[in-house]
Specification:
By secondary structure, the protein is mostly helical. The protein has one domain (about 5-75): P-loop containing nucleotide triphosphate hydrolases (Rossmann fold, 3-Layer(aba) Sandwich), CATH 3.40.50.300. Helix content is about 65%, strand content about 0%. Helix 1 crosses helix 2. The model has no long low-confidence stretch (mean pLDDT about 90).
Length: about 80
């Protein structure tokens, strides 16, 4: 499934994309919380494809050292 198709089929995803567009327009960053790793992976792929930027996806299976690096990158805006 193409990211564009996922966005068009889901009202929640479409609304999320609009919110992120507004956040990006203000040169801000955001955190998105999801209950499921599969959903997180899907959102990561859709967002990277749509915005053409790297997206960090932190979950419980990410090793602590890598998690700490991701948190530091997010806080410093260097991701």
């Amino acid at each position: 499934t193409e990211p564009k198709d996922i966005i068009e089929r889901s009202m929640k995803t479409s609304t999320l994309m609009e919110l992120i567009e507004n956040i990006k327009d203000q040169n801000e960053s955001c955190l998105i919380f999801t209950q499921y790793i599969g959903m997180g992976n899907m959102l990561k792929n859709v967002l990277e494809e749509h915005f053409g930027q790297r997206v960090l996806f932190l979950n419980g299976s990410v090793p602590k050292k890598e998690r700490d690096k991701m948190i530091e990158q997010f806080q410093n805006g260097t991701y």
